[in-house]
Amino acid sequence: MKKFFQEFKQFAMRGNVMDMAVGFIVGAAFTAVVNSLVGDLIMPCLGVLVGGVDFSDLAVTLKPAVAATATSPSVPAVLFKYGTFINVIINFMIIAFCVFLLVKGINLLSKKKEEEPAHAAPQKTEDQKLLEEIRDILKENKK
Q1: Within a domain: residue 110?
Q2: Which residue has the higher pLDDT, 87 or 121?
Q3: Tens digits of residue pLDDT in 63-77
Q4: Which CATH number characterizes residue 49's domain?
Q5: Res 117: pLDDT
Q6: Is position 45 within any domain?
Q7: Mutual orientation of helices 15-36 and 2-12 as an angle, nearest 10°?
Q8: Backbone angles phi, psi at 58, to 5 degrees
Q9: Residue 141 falls inside a structural domain
Q10: For residue 20, what pLDDT is reported?
Q11: In this predicted structure, what is the pLDDT of residue 120?
């Protein structure tokens, strides 16, 4: 059992697993920010532009609600909520655009690193030159 926990600890502490965990946490926070951006800022403005329509309320009633009676409980309406779907599509488009900008920025940074001139090879010290000469002489003597 102890070996099992040691293996799990090694697995969990690998760099890739930790990177993935950090990415997941940041992704969840990013999703909350985008949801707020869409739900609290973009959709109200878009709703005003289209005549005060709140997209999250847009739906088609497929089956109306049934009120409770003495013998049966109430049954909620069955709705086709296309307004919520519009909100989700807008969320997706914003997230996809942000990821595109992020990848584009990373690509620009990596191109700049590639374009930087390579540093000249470091100059060999006198000791290194002397050792190379000795090595070459020893090679010649072996032949």
Answers
A1: yes
A2: 87
A3: 998 888 888 888 899
A4: 1.10.1200.120
A5: 62
A6: yes
A7: 60
A8: -70, 125
A9: no
A10: 81
A11: 66
Give residue 42's identity as a one-letter amino acid code.
I
**AA letter at 63:** K
Res 11: pLDDT:
76
Asked whether residue 128 is assigned to any structural domain, the reply reads no
Using CB atoms within 10 Å of the CB of residue 35, give its burial: 0 to 12 exposed, 13 to 18 middle, 19+ buried: middle
Rg (the chain; Cα; Å):
32
Mean pLDDT of 9-17: 74
- Calculated CA dihedral for residues 57, 58, 59, 64, nearest 10 degrees: 50
Do residues 80 and 63 touch, judged by C-beta distance below 8 A?
no
Distance (Å, whole) CA 55 – CA 45: 11
**pTM passes above 0.85:** no
Instruction: Tally the residues of the chain.
Output: 143
Q: Please tell me the chain's helix, strand, coil percentages from 3-state DSSP, rounded to the nearest 5.
A: 70, 5, 25
Please state the domain count of the chain: 1
User: Domain of 107?
Assistant: 2-116
Q: Determine the Cα–Cα distance for residues 104 and 111; give it in Å rounded to an integer.
A: 11
